[in-house]
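Marked as duplicate of an earlier ticket. Keeping the data here for the record.
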Amino acid sequence: MPKRFFNAYTDENIKKAVSQHFEIIKYENIDVKKSAVHLQCMILKKKGVYSYYILDKIIK
């Protein structure tokens, strides 16, 4: 099961923070119907390692 993490970073700040330790393989914003939040989904590759992690987050 992939690890999951929820936070309240902006799009640019979360990309900056994770790119220090991970390579961003895929980044996607997903709108949540009837809500002021959106889901951000990232598929990441840890730098120097050959495994993948998924990072999800909700932001207001």
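See parent ticket for discussion. Residues 11-59 form one domain.
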